[in-house]
Design goal:
232 residues, alpha+beta, 3-stranded mixed β-sheet, globular
């Protein structure tokens, strides 16, 4: 996780890793990286109702062929040498991650856990797992998909229109009441900490007359929130 500084004439992007709030003490490093593996990162603090704007970047060295796998080391050496040099500075820490030890020992040490193709979908509906369900829509930023932090629930969708339609449903009173009822019952019965979106998902087809209107209202709400917050 890092802060984007500037792009050099040679195409490399200079970044500084974020050490504030880290679980382990790490050195602050500024380094040039290949931009192909650098993605906008959406953190929980960046998400609220109708508003989701990334505040950081993440190095995601996942294979373009299958995102659940890390990019092979030989490929990193030939195509992303600067990024590999940067990751090697944290190799011991990356190899000691509980998720890596338990699930990813067959993967390169820098592979990310629970990352799949849907993580890199261009359009998503998102909300945080640690607060009230307040949905927003994320789309590509400077041509790149936004990658949500692991504390964010996401629904990947094929289009801007469908994303805004689903967001309007999630933020509507009926869904909010249903979500509260489901979570309250599951907490009482099972100590459940998940979210309703983890239920089997139905195919949503925003083709009715109300769908375009709902999507348009939601897009307007997003634009208003961005103007209030001073973002584009």
């Amino acid at each position: 996780m890092g802060e984007h500084h500037r792009e050099r004439p040679d195409g490399l992007v200079v970044v500084t890793n974020i050490t504030e709030g880290a679980k382990h003490e790490v050195e602050s490093v500024q380094a040039p990286l290949e931009k192909d593996l650098l993605f906008p990162l959406l953190r929980s603090r960046d998400v609220s109702r109708w508003h989701a704007v990334p505040s950081a970047f993440i190095v995601a060295p996942q294979s373009v062929d299958d995102r659940k796998h890390g990019t092979p080391i030989p490929t990193m050496k030939t195509k992303y040498a600067k990024t590999l040099q940067y990751l090697e500075r944290f190799k011991e820490l990356l190899e000691s991650r509980p998720a890596y030890v338990k699930f990813l020992k067959h993967e390169p040490y820098y592979a990310l856990y629970d990352i799949k193709n849907y993580t890199f979908a261009q359009w998503k509906v998102v909300w945080t797992r640690v607060a009230a369900i307040e949905a927003a829509v994320t789309g590509p930023l400077d041509g790149k998909p936004i990658v949500p932090q692991e504390t964010i629930t996401l629904i990947d969708v094929p289009s801007n229109r469908e994303a805004h339609f689903i967001a309007s449903l999630v933020n509507a009173v009926p869904f909010q009441y249903a979500a509260a009822a489901i979570l309250t019952r599951r907490w009482q019965e099972y100590g459940y900490t998940g979210h309703p979106a983890e239920h089997p998902r139905a195919k949503v087809r925003p083709e009715g007359r109300a769908a375009p209107a709902a999507g348009g209202v939601v897009q307007t709400a997003h634009k208003m929130r961005r103007s209030w917050n001073g973002t584009k």
